[in-house]
Design goal:
Blueprint: E1 2-9, E2 44-47, E3 53-57, E4 62-67, E5 73-78, E6 84-91, E7 94-104, E8 110-116, E9 129-130, E10 136-139, E11 147-151, E12 156-163, E13 166-167, E14 174-176, E15 182-186, E16 189-193, E17 199-205, E18 211-216, E19 222-227, E20 230-235, E21 242-243, E22 245-246, E23 252-256, E24 262-271, E25 277-285, E26 291-292, E27 304-305, E28 316-317, E29 321-323
Parallel strand pairs: 22-26
Antiparallel strand pairs: 1-12, 1-17, 2-3, 2-29, 3-4, 5-6, 6-7, 7-8, 9-10, 10-11, 11-12, 12-13, 14-15, 15-16, 16-17, 18-19, 19-20, 20-21, 23-24, 24-25, 25-27, 25-28
Amino acid sequence: MRIKIFSKWTIGISLVMVLFLSCRKGDGGGSGNGGPGNGLSGHIYYEFADNGVSRLDPPGFESTLFLQEQSKRNGWDVSYDNQYKLEASTILHNYDDIQFTLSKISDGSIVSQFVYSPLNGGSNYQSGSLSPDGKLIGIPASFDEGIVILNTSGELIAHIEGINGEKFERHSAMYWLPNNGLVVAHKKNIIRIDPPYTSGKLIKEMNYTEWGDLAVNREGTKMALVIDKHIHMMDMDGNNLAQVTDSKFAESGPEFSPDGRHLLVVSNYRQSGVFGFLGNLKIVPADGKKYNVDPVYENSPEVIPVILPGEDGPEAADGRQRWR
């Protein structure tokens, strides 16, 4: 099934302003690999409350501060190679535009910085994510904005306003594919949109009341998502859908490990205020089997709770995390 995208689309022509540019029994888990964190690759980045963005390094889950808390920061991302960080921030006394800053993690030097003006006058609280090759920035749909793709200099690459005459809902799920394509949520469908972002292909129709939080492994062969409060996995063609987390509460924010062998999830995900949410970080094998991650009842032996040295319970997070 081919899907027609209506968009404002251009390559290499900038249409944006560029600035000079609680440890309880249930929270215990098995090692799965001979010890908590053993066999895990990469770095885990996560955010919680006003603690800024932290980085955890397996196997011991040593924690370091990655980004200081800033009230004007809308969002952040880390490149797949752990070399660059992307920040999106509001601008003092400017209620229309967003400043994007791409910088090196090693020394903080700025690689690119530009001001983005929402094309349809959308929200200035938007954020962005880096493509797998680090050359593009994807901005999720907001109000009437649709999905926007820029290069890292701020030039417009594509503006996907909607599909089959219907616009995207605000904050519709979006995730990058290895070829710089996109997997997006639109109405009751999961759709694949490959470069040059002029057409899409239906992956799966989702006849569920609640679903979202899409994530894709680096090979582009598996997808994780939330359906009815629990994490599920399926093949990228929409087949072999299976529930992989279970509890009497809710899970959110799945992220594949760099090697695709594990999933980071936020267990016991619940509302913590008018706009806030929180949960606890746990890791499960990404093998399509179901694992209990309940905060009260005994977890499956293979579940790895993300517990920092000296702490007695899984680390709290607000559902925005990366595993690079």
